[in-house]
Amino acid sequence: MPEDVRTAFDAMTIKDMAQNIKPAIYAAWRNEIKEQKTANRALRDAAEEAFNAICDEEWEIGMRICAIPAHTLEGMTVKLRGERYIGIGIGIGIGTGDL
C-alpha cells in the first residue's frame, strides 16, 4: 500500500470505519491495481498464445520428421532425437542417453 493511502487510512475516524467509508485516494489506488491486473492478464494471455504457437510449430516439424521413412542408422537417430525433443512418444524408447 502506498504511503499516501496508508496516511489517509490513519486519518480515518472510528465512525468512518464503522460505516465502511473509505478515503477517495483508496478508490483511486484500487482502480489502478485493477487496471494493472487487467494489463498483466492480457500480457500473460498473449505470451501463452505465442508459446502455444511455437509449440504447435515444433510439433508439426517433429511429425514431418517422423513421417519420413528412415533407411539408415543415421536416419533413425534423427527420428529418435526429434521424438525425444518434442516428446511425442511414438518411438521404441531406447534408453535415456544422448543419441
Uncertain residue segments: 92-99
Tally the beta strands.
0
Overall 3D form: rod-shaped
Instruction: State the helicity in percent bands.
Output: over 70%
Proportion of beta-strand residues: under 5%
- Major beta sheet summary: none
Structural class: mainly alpha
Radius of gyration: 28 Å
Quote the distance from N terminus to C terminus.
Answer: 54 Å
- Provide mean pLDDT, rounded: 81
Order of helices and strands: HHHH
Number of helices, counting only DSSP H or I runs of 4 residues or more: 4
What does this structure look like?
The chain is mainly α and 99 residues long. It has a domain at 3-68. Helices cover 72% and strands 0% of the residues. The chain is built from four helices and no strands. It has helices at 3-10, 14-18, 24-67, 73-86. Helix 3 runs antiparallel to helix 4 (73-86). Mean pLDDT is 81; it is low at 92-99.
